[in-house]
Structure formats: structure tokens, C-alpha cells
Design brief:
296 residues; mainly alpha; 12 helices
């Protein structure tokens, strides 16, 4: 009984109820309306002749039982069939425009991982330098404030022109959008380390390298992980839009290609996959952040 009264259990039950409510609304909204009886349409001789020339049956055009117009939005049954079909064979490869959702997701995650890793290798050491040196901070702050607000996708034409490779250009866009949150949070975390701890390290004549790894890094780790968590969320947002622009492979290209094929159920399925993967990535960084957070 105590477990059922816990906050985690009650929040889980509420989440399930909200999900069931959304599915119920979806089901009701996609119910096929009952066909209304329509009066027979009298066709002229010219319309009958035109229908015959087009290979159509004039009687069917004048019939009152014509199919009603549909919204085209998939029902829950149709979505279930699409989900089962995509998950049954997620790694098939039938050519450039026909790949499984698992392969497309793998391409996107690979681009995000590489661009994100490059951003971390640049942003975290540079953030340490900025946080430890007011002179460097004042010198680089104008450049950071100018470059930070620029949309990552605005860099895509320049990247395509200079790099001339859509795959590497996508990685560059992930790099440029991931570097700023990590850089700023790292600099803030390093600059916010308690002066008492730094004074103790100075009194003990700790070497700068040892002070950076054993004093500053543990103290600034929660803030650094916060920046890395924000960067990952932004990177996962940007890669979808970037792949829609450059095409080829990836979950973003999958969405755009299925839209061009007028396959709305596959588009919705891909949107759900993007959301679930984004949630799992955020949970991973939240666990890492919790592991390095300490209580004074």
C-alpha cells in the first residue's frame, strides 16, 4: 500500500491515463463518418461522352453511393500496422530511398555522436581556459555573443559550399550547435568554484594540472554536464532539420521522403521515434548529471 501511495506510482498512473485519453480522442477523431445519401446526379450527353472517353463508367458518376471524402489521417489500427511493419524489419536496405527505420536512425545517431564529440573536445578545454582567466573571457566574450545566436542551419549553405560533402556538412552543423552550451556552462562552472577550495590548493602548492583535474573538474562537473545535456537536446533537434535539407540518409530524410510519398502513418511513426530517442538521450545525461552532483 505504501508503494501505491508513492509519488512515482501515482505519477505513472496519471501518465497512463493521459496516454489513454489521447488515444481515445485520436480514435474518435478518426472514426469514418456514416455515408450520407446523396441524390442521383443527372449527367448531360456531353458529360456521359467525356466519361466514356476517360474510361469511366457514367453510371458510377451519377450514383448516390459515392464514397465520402476522407481526412486521410490514420486510425489507431492503421498506425498499429505501420508500427509493427517498421519494427518487424528495421534494418532492411532496398536502395537509396528505401531503408529501414533502424538504419536511418543509426545514420542520424552517428552524425550526432561525431559532431557532439568534436564539440566536447573543443568546448570543454576552452571553457576551462575562459573560466580560469578573466583576460581570456573578456577577449573571447564578444565573439561568443555574436556567434551563439546564429541558427545552426544558417551555416549549412556555407558548409556545403566549402566542404562539398553533405554528410560532413551535417556533422559540422551538429558541432556548431553543440559547442556553445557546453562552452558557456563549462566556463561558468569553472569560474564558480569556491575560492576556499582554490586557496587550499594554492596553500598546498598543488600543480595547475592537478588542481584542474582534482579540484576544479569535480566541482564544476554538474554544471558541465548540464551544458552537455542541453547541447545533446539541441543537436538532436538540429540533425532532423539538417537531414531534411541535405537528404540522402537519416531519420530527418526518412520523414521528408515519406511525406513526399504521401505516407502520413510513416511520418507519424518517425516523429514518435524521434521523440522516444530524444527522451532516452536526455535520460542518459540526467543520470550522468545526478552521478556527479554532490550535496554540501
Amino acid at each position: 500500500m505504501a508503494f501505491m501511495r508513492s509519488l512515482g506510482f501515482r505519477s505513472g498512473v496519471l501518465s497512463v491515463l493521459i496516454l489513454l485519453g489521447v488515444l481515445a480522442v485520436w480514435h474518435v477523431a478518426t472514426l469514418a463518418p456514416a455515408p450520407a445519401a446523396a441524390p442521383a446526379v443527372a449527367l448531360t450527353a456531353e458529360q456521359i461522352e467525356y466519361a466514356k472517353l476517360m474510361g469511366k463508367d457514367p453510371a458510377s458518376l451519377a450514383s448516390p453511393t459515392s464514397a465520402p471524402a476522407k481526412s486521410g489521417f490514420p486510425t489507431l489500427a492503421q498506425m498499429g500496422a505501420v508500427v509493427a511493419k517498421n519494427l518487424a524489419s528495421p534494418f532492411y536496405d532496398n536502395g537509396p530511398n528505401d531503408k529501414g527505420i533502424g538504419l536511418q536512425l543509426g545514420y542520424s545517431l552517428g552524425r550526432v555522436a561525431l559532431g557532439y564529440l568534436l564539440a566536447a573536445l573543443v568546448a570543454i578545454p576552452l571553457g576551462f581556459v575562459i573560466g580560469m582567466s578573466p583576460l581570456v573571457y573578456r577577449a573571447l566574450d564578444p565573439f561568443i555573443q555574436v556567434l551563439k545566436p546564429i541558427s545552426p542551419l544558417a551555416w549549412m549553405p556555407l558548409a556545403l559550399y566549402t566542404i562539398k560533402d553533405s554528410n560532413i556538412s551535417g556533422i559540422f552543423v551538429i558541432f556548431i550547435c553543440s559547442v556553445w552550451p557546453m562552452l558557456i556552462n563549462t566556463a561558468f562552472g569553472v569560474a564558480s568554484v569556491r575560492r576556499d577550495w582554490l586557496n587550499v590548493a594554492k596553500t598546498l602548492e598543488v600543480s595547475p594540472l592537478r588542481k584542474a583535474f582534482e579540484v576544479i573538474l569535480p566541482a564544476a562537473a554538474p554544471t558541465i554536464l548540464t551544458g552537455m545535456r542541453i547541447s545533446m537536446g539541441i543537436a538532436w533537434l538540429v540533425i532532423v532539420a539538417a537531414e531534411m535539407l541535405v537528404g540522402g540518409t537519416g531519420i530527418g530524410y526518412f520523414v521528408w521522403n515519406e511525406w513526399n510519398n504521401l505516407s502520413l502513418p510513416n511520418v507519424i511513426f518517425a516523429i514518435l521515434v524521434i521523440g522516444v530517442v530524444g527522451m532516452l538521450l536526455d535520460l542518459m545525461f540526467a543520470r550522468m548529471q545526478k552521478a556527479v552532483t554532490y550535496v554540501d
